[in-house]
């Protein structure tokens, strides 16, 4: 089996396999024409709604401690939260794993205009090459991020990419979720994608970092994956319920999460 993070030269000398294949798929003329139109609409929707949102952040002190130690972060979050977090984290140079399919091609244009980098790949195609690019970006001092149940689900089932990358780079995983007080949920989409209504309040909950040892074996990797899955569920439960809690309950959670 190929090492997912071997050098580019070594990979190029080996037969192309699906997990290294980041060639763009064949699209129809109509699909190619749609990409710039959808990308422009998506970007301006972000630019219109984003400035109206009011964010509260829980647990960010964990990230500050990682940065103070001179390390970078591997972020992971559910696909459902993409729209809101794209605005909150814009302009920071975070490198996002981006699929090469039709949706990935127009999404790439949107996120790059918002100040993100991209690594082409997904769990179904090009993922190992994408991980190699992310490892390089972490070494160059940039954070990276995964929509961890993307690009097509199953919803709320974490993929293994962050754990693999954490073992290779020594950078910790931090998971988070965005909860919105008012939003439109696309119930017919696999991810229950959300777009906030104008002037919505939002909460972002960050869990403590998860480290993976460089010598982690199969069993420890499985434990770390389970730990990441559990943390993702915990932050989702808190963020999704935030605006239904009493003010006293929210104060208790603030004390706990910001300790």
Largest sheet: 7 strands, mixed
Structural class: alpha/beta
SSE string, helices as H and strands as E: HHEHEHEHEHEHEEEEHH
End-to-end distance, in Å? 44 Å
CATH topology term = Glycerol-3-phosphate (1)-acyltransferase
Describe what you observe in this structure.
- It is a single chain.
- The protein is α/β, with parallel strands linked by helices and 259 residues long.
- The protein has one domain (27-257): 3-Layer(aba) Sandwich (Glycerol-3-phosphate (1)-acyltransferase), CATH 3.40.1130.10.
- The chain is 42% helix and 16% strand.
- The protein has helices at 8-12, 29-49, 61-68, 82-88, 102-113, 127-139, 161-169, 218-241, 247-257; strands spanning 54-58, 74-77, 95-98, 117-120, 144-147, 173-180, 183-185, 194-196, 201-206.
- Strands 1-9-6-2-5-3-4 form a seven-stranded mixed beta sheet, with helices on both faces. A two-stranded antiparallel sheet has the order 7-8.
- Strand 7 (183-185) and strand 8 (194-196) form a beta hairpin.
- Helix 2 runs parallel beside helix 5 and helix 6 packs parallel to helix 7 (161-169).
- The longest helix has 24 residues, at 218-241.
- The model is unreliable at 1-16 (pLDDT under 50).
């Amino acid at each position: 089996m190929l090492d997912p993070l071997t050098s580019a030269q070594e990979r190029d000398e080996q037969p192309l396999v699906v997990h290294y294949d980041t060639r763009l798929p064949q699209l129809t003329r109509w699909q190619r024409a749609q990409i710039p139109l959808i990308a422009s609409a998506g970007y301006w929707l972000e630019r219109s709604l984003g400035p109206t949102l009011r964010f509260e952040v829980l647990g960010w002190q964990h990230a500050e401690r990682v940065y103070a130690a001179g390390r970078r972060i591997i972020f992971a979050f559910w696909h459902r939260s993409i729209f809101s977090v794209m605005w909150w984290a814009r302009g920071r140079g975070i490198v996002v794993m981006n699929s090469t399919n039709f949706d990935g091609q127009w999404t790439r244009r949107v996120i790059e205009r918002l100040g993100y980098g991209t690594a082409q790949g997904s769990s179904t195609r090009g993922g190992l090459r994408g991980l190699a690019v992310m490892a390089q970006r972490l070494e160059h001092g940039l954070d990276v991020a995964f929509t961890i149940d993307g690009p097509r689900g199953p919803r709320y089932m974490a993929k293994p990419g962050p754990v693999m990358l954490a073992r290779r780079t020594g950078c910790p995983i931090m998971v988070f979720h965005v909860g919105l007080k008012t939003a439109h949920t696309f119930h017919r989409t696999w991810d229950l994608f959300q777009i906030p209504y104008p002037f919505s309040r939002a909460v972002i909950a960050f869990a403590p970092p998860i480290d993976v040892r460089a010598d982690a074996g199969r069993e420890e990797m499985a434990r770390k994956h389970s730990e990441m899955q559990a943390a993702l569920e915990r932050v989702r439960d808190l963020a999704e319920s935030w605006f239904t809690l009493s003010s006293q309950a929210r104060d208790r959670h603030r004390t706990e999460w910001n300790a």
